[in-house]
Every structure is written in C-alpha cells, then in structure tokens.
Amino acid sequence: MALPDDPPGDLEAVDGLPEVGKVPEPDGNYGAFVPHYAPEKIFEIASKLYKKGR
Length: 54
Fold this sequence. Notes:
The protein is mostly helical. It has one helix spanning 39-53.
C-alpha cells in the first residue's frame, strides 16, 4: 500500500507520463515580479561582478 487512501493490492509501475487535464495559460502582470534597473545601475553591477571575477 503506497498511501492510506490507495486501494489494496500490488503496486504497478507504468511507463510514460500520466494523463492530465489542460494546463491553463497564466495571465497577469509578469513585470511585477521582475526587478527594474536603470541601464547605469546594470552597468555598475556588471562592473563590480567583472572586477570580482578577475
């Protein structure tokens, strides 16, 4: 028994992916989760990383 709610009996391994329903397309404001940096700030960060990488 794999889980308490599973029916009794032997477990069976099945090849392939399980059949699932349609995956919904996400919608919304994706930009809200992306930090916005000014180009000069990106250059400053890149310069610091480059110097530390040398």
